[in-house]
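Researcher: Go.
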Amino acid sequence: MYVIVYLRKNPSEDKGLSFNSVQSSLAGSGWSIAPLHPGAEDEDLARQFFVEVTDAQQGQMVQDQLSKLDEVEAVYTKPPEGPPS
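Model: Structure:
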């Protein structure tokens, strides 16, 4: 299960600093953030990240933590993938 994170567009701020701030926020809880589209040159794709979690409860905890950060524009838990029912 994944939590998808969109960082804010801020032309006056270094993207690396935003990422590092979010990463530092998660490090104390044992989670890490990674690019959703590694190496993407498109600005919109480059600000999309994910956090892997084991269940919906952890997903909600990550969402709650990241939604408080100014650097984060949006955050949501992606439902687990599976065959259609």
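Model: The first strand starts at residue 2 and ends at 7.
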